[in-house]
Amino acid sequence: KGDYDFNPQYWDAVSDDAKDLITKLLCVDPSQRLTAAGVKGHVWMQSETDVMRSRTLSKMTTNLKAYNAKRRFRGAIMSVQVINYLGAAQLMRASQQADAAALAAASAAAAEAAAEGAASA
pLDDT digit string (tens) for 45-97? Predict the structure, then answer.
């Protein structure tokens, strides 16, 4: 389908020529999409280097830093969740081993009691 828009919150600082290039690259129909030669010859690619260098992307830099901070925070949360899951699994395994040992001891005691009862009879 290829529906998209240039949200002003993020795209106001981007030139119309740059948006035009992106639009021409995002065509769903490959025959309508720009070729490598078309990209190289596009107005935005031909624009003067000084003009390009004078533009700052401070808002984009701020957004990128916020995104990276969120990504690191999510990674830390996932690490804690994995550690908690592994700790719970280890506790469950220890509990199961203790239950198995208690069951074996009870079975042994019952067998011993049965053997004593049979011997005294």
Answer: 887 666 666 666 777 788 889 999 999 999 999 999 999 889 888 888 888 88
Q: Taking a C-beta distance cutoff of 8 angstroms, is the pair 23, 11 a contact?
A: no
45 Cβ partners below 8 Å, 6+ apart?
21, 39
Tell me if 17 sits within 8 A of 46, measured CB to CB: no
Q: What is the DSSP string of 63-114?
A: HHHHHHHHHHHHHHHHHHHHHHHHHHHHHHHHHHHHHHHHHHHHHHHHHHHH
Q: pTM of the prediction?
A: 0.45
> Which of 16, 7, 77, 72 shows the shortest CA–CA distance to 44?
16
In three-state secondary structure terms, 52 is helix
What tokens were used for 113? 């009691």
Backbone φ, ψ for residue 76 (5° rounding): -65, -40
Tokens of 75: 């990674």
